[in-house]
Amino acid sequence: MTTLKLDTLSDRIKAHKNALVHIVKPPVCTERAQHYTEMYQQHLDKPIPVRRALALAHHLANRTIWIKHDELIIGNQASEVRAAPIFPEYTVSWIEKEIDDLADRPGAGFAVSEENKRVLHEVCPWWRGQTVQDRCYGMFTDEQKGLLAMAENCDLIAHQPPQTFWQALQLCYFIQLILQIESNGHSVSFGRMDQYLYPYYRRDVELNQTLDREHAIEMLHSCWLKLLEVNKIRSGSHSKASAGSPLYQNVTIGGQNLVDGQPMDAVNPLSYAILESCGRLRSTQPNLSVRYHAGMSNDFLDACVQVIRCGFGMPAFNNDEIVIPEFIKLGIEPQDAYDYAAIGCIETAVGGKWGYRCTGMSFINFARVMLAALEGGRDATSGKVFLPQEKALSAGNFNNFDEVMDAWDTQIRYYTRKSIEIEYVVDTMLEENVHDILCSALVDDCIERAKSIKQGGAKYDWVSGLQVGIANLGNSLAAVKKLVFEQGAIGQQQLAAALADDFEGLTHEQLRQRLINGAPKYGNDDDTVDMLLARAYQTYIDELKQYHNPRYGRGPVGGNYYAGTSSISANVPFGAQTMATPDGRKAHTPLAEGASPASGTDHLGPTAVIGSVGKLPTAAILGGVLLNQKLNPATLENESDKQKLMILLRTFFEVHKGWHIQYNIVSRETLLEAKKHPDQYRDLVVRVAGYSAFFTALSPDAQDDIIARTEHML
User: Fold this and answer.
1) 11-232+244-346 belongs to CATH 1.50.10.10
2) Is 633 exposed, middle or buried (CB count within 10 Å of its CB: 0-12, 13-18, 19+)?
3) Which residues lie closer than 8 Å to 490 by C-beta, 6 or more apart?
4) Boundaries of every domain in the chain
5) Where is each Glycine radical domain found (predicted)?
6) Catalytic residues, which ones?
7) pTM exceeding the 0.85 threshold for the entire prediction
C-alpha cells in the first residue's frame, strides 16, 4: 500500500498558512468598487456588456499588485491579504446599511478603515436604482416585461500554452483569480485538475525529472493558500446561510475516463499528489472531491481514508456509478459524462461546457411547506395563507392520512412553482446586467453562438432546486401517520395545539416525547419512514422537472431543473424561521441539513444511515444527495478500523447506490474546547455541509449545530 506523508509541510508553507489562518477579521478592499464606478460613469452611452468589459480592463490595469516573500504562486484578488472586494453592480442597499457594523458581526466580521467607509459612502449612492437587486425588484412590479435577448461576442483572452507544471498551475490560478474578480461568484471550481495537469506533471516529475515530487506538492500548497486568500463579503442574512465564509472552490480527482468506448480508472500519480497535498495542509480550500467507482483500487481508497483520518472534512466522494449513467440519459454525450466534476459543494457538471450555475438561488423550506399542508395552507411563521385548503389539523377534518399526503402534494407543487418564478426573475436580471465575458470565452460553444453563458451559450445547462429540512419532513409525516391516524394516540386538534404552543407545558412536553420516541425516524434503515419520505420527495421532483430555465431553447442541451439537496448552512437560519414540527423539533431550532438525518435521531449507527439515504430517489436527484457523517477520532486509530470505513464506503456506493458522502472526524469534546478557547483552535477545520470551514470562524449557532450532530463509531 502507498503510505502518504501527511505530517510534512515546508517551512515556507507553514509560515504562509499560519499567517492566513490568524487573520480573524479580514479587511475590505474598495479598489474594484472605485474602478468599476469610474468606468460605468464614463461610458453611460455604451451597452452594459461593453461597460463591464471596459471596467474589468480598467481595474486590472490600475489595481494594486503585490508579491509576498517566498511565494511560489503569485496573484492577488484585492489590495491586501484576504481582503474582500466590493461588487456594487449587484447591490448596494445592504452595504450602505451594514458597512459601519461589519467589524462587530459574529463569525463573519470584516475590518473596514475609515477611508474605505468614506469611499463606500461616496460610491454607493450612484448605484441606487441601477443594481441587479434594484432591477429584480422592478421586474417583480412589472411581470409583463419581456426577456431581453442580448447577442454579444465574448472577447477571448489569449494565452501562450504553458510548458511546465509550474506554469500550468500558475495559469490555472490566474484564470481562477480573474474569474473571481470579474463576477461576485461562488463555486468557481477547477474541474478534474489531476487529468488536465497530469501531462505537465508527468513530463517534469516522471520523465524529465526537472521537478521533484516534494517541490510539486509545495507548489500545490502555495496554490491552495492563494485560494484561501480569495474572499467575498456577504450580507448578514447570506452569511448565516453560508457559515464560515466558504468560497466552494472545488478540485476533483479520481474517477474514470472513456477510452475507445471503455471506462478506465483515471487515477494517476498527480491524483495522489493532490490528495496528499490537501491532507498535509488541512485547509478549507480547495474543496476536494473524489470520484468513486467500483473499479477504484484499494490502494487509492486507502490513501483517501488516510486523508479523511486527518480530520478536516475532506475528501468528499461522488459516485460515478450514479452520475455518469444518469447524465447520459439526460442527453449528455458519453465522453462528456465521463468527464464530469464536482462544482461548489456536491453539485456536478461537465467542466468548461456547462451553464453559469449548477445550483438554484431559492431554497424551499420543506418543514414550513409541510406545516402549511397540515393547517389549511396557513404559514405557521407569518400566519399568512398563500394557497388555502379545506383540511387542517386544528379543524380535525382530515379523514385519513392519504388526505394529509394530498395536502402536501398540493402545497409543495405551489411553492415549487413560486420558487421557479423567483429564479426566472433573478436569472433575467443577471443576464441583462452581469455578462461574465471572460467566463463565457472559456466555455464551449459561447463564442460560436455569440452568446454568454447567461444567454444560452454553453453546451449544457441544468440547474438544481434546493431544499432544507428533508429529514424533518419524513420524520414529521411518519409521526402523524403512526400516532394520529394508525394508533389514534394523538388527536388532530391535540397535535395542532401542541405545535402552536411550541410544546410548552407538561402535557404538551409529554406529547412531544411521544412524537420523538414513539415514531420511526429517518436514518435508522426503517422502511416506514424512509419510503414515506421518498414518496413525499418524489412529488417535488415530478413538479420541478416540468419547468425550464431562461436558457431553454436558446442553444444548450437541457435548460431544465432537477432536484438537489445541498442546503449549505441554511438549515440553521431557516430553522430559526420555522415553528415547531410534528417530529418533536422545537420552534426556531435548526432543521436537518442536506439529506442527512436530523441531529440525534440516527441511533443505529452509520450502516443504518446509509440504508435510509439509499432509499431516496437518488437517480432523480441529479443535483446531489448530500450526506454528512460524524465519526469519533478513536474510530480510525488502527488499520482494522480503516478497513471498516473502506468497506462502508464501497457498500454505500455499490449496494445502496449512494450519491455522495463526507466525514467529520472530530470529537464533541474538541469542538466544545474550540468554542470556549477559539485562539487555541484557529486552524481547526470542520465539514459544515458540502464544504469545510474553520470552526472558530462560524457563528455560535452554526457551531452548536455541528456539535449536536450524532457522533458515530464504526
Assistant:
1) no
2) middle
3) 483, 484, 511, 514, 515
4) 11-232+244-346, 359-625
5) 593-714
6) 345, 347
7) yes
